Amino acid sequence: MKYRIFSIVGVLIFSFAFSNTTEIEDSKDLNSKPEIPIEAKTEKSFEEKVADLYEDFSLNNVSVPKISVFEKAIAGYTKLDEAGKVSNPLLTIVDFDLSSTEKRMWILNMETKEVIFNTFVAHGKNTGLEFADNFSNTMNSNQSSLGFYVTGETYYGKNGLSLFIDGMEKKFNSNARKRYVVIHGADYAEPEFINKYGRLGRSLGCPAVPNKIAKKLINKIKGESVVYIHKNDSNYLNSSKFLAR
User: Fold this and answer.
1) Sequence-separated (6 or more) residues with CB below 8 Å from residue 11
2) Can you give the pTM of this predicted structure?
3) How would you label 221-233 residue by residue, b for 16+ Cβ within 10 Å and e otherwise?
4) Contact 82, 226 (CB under 8 A)
5) Which residues contact residue 187 at a Cβ distance below 8 angstroms, ignoring those fewer than 6 apart?
6) Following DSSP, what letter does each residue of 145-202 receive, concatenated?
7) With contact defined as beta carbons under 8 Å apart, do 224 and 87 qualify?
8) Which helix (H) or strand (E) holds 114?
9) Category of 159 on φ-ψ map: left (φ > 0), alpha (ψ -120 to 50) or beta
10) Type and span of the H or E element at 117
11) Which of 237, 238, 226, 199 is nearest to 69 (CA)?
12) Which among 176, 99, 170, 155 is positioned nearest to 130, based on CA atoms?
């Protein structure tokens, strides 16, 4: 009899413990929150990346190119960099939409997000007077050429220290080296010329810069950095392989 009582008590204790544990587990299930999957990070678009980069440059510098020109320059720079054409991480932007009386050349350090030069630059004498309007890739045209270039080596010529720039776009600037379209210093690119004549002087097609800073500027950008010469020209903008996405 005693053993039967113990057996019944044991069964009751086991049943109580089991039901209590089940209630606790059920309670946990009711109170626990379902796991929410972490959404995969979406890659930023090219435009978003450019906007972030432009903000960095804008915060760090007094003067930057217009964002529409900046975006085009970054598009070409990125393609040239991916193709292994860039050894010097500087990007020179020339905006020929602007008057020659304005500082329309910027040299950007893509690593430090610093504008290291913002200066005047001349265009070719057959490209226009105050504004650059006509462009060519042909010999003896005395016109400027649009598009993307990669800087080459320096030499000393009649304009002193000069820098070859090799055009990357067959239709628009591929004859730059043959034409001796180079970056060099010139007195007619100094701001004093503007004060006297109301515009900069003009070159034979070269993007000439002020003599006072030419040597320093050239030594900075030589050796496979990128130069982008811009104009809101529909023929160029619709044809350039570097701007196509």
Assistant:
1) none
2) 0.83
3) bbebbbbbbbbeb
4) no
5) 193, 201, 211
6) --EEEEEEEEEEETTEEEEEEEE--TTTTTTHHHHT-EEEEEGGGSHHHHHHHSS---
7) yes
8) strand 114-119
9) alpha
10) strand 114-119
11) 237
12) 99
- The amino acid present at 204, given as its one-letter code, is L
Q: In the structure encoding, which two tokens stand for residue 119, read together? A: 């200066």
- The residue assigned the tokens 């210093």 is 185
Q: Which strands form 226-230's sheet, in the order they lie side by side?
A: 114-119, 105-109, 90-95, 226-230, 147-157, 160-167, 182-186, 209-210
Supply the pLDDT for residue 245: 77
Delimit the domains of the chain by residue range: 46-238
Q: How many Cα atoms within 13 Å fall on the side-chain side of residue 183?
A: 34
Strands 182-186 and 209-210: parallel
Per-residue pLDDT, averaged over 106-119, amounts to: 98
Amino acid at position 99, single letter = S
pLDDT at 3: 43
Architecture of domain 46-238: Beta Barrel (2.40)
Checking if the pLDDT of 187 tops 90, the result is yes
Q: How far apart are CA 122 and CA 135, in angstroms?
A: 13
For residue 231 the two structure tokens come to: 């104009």
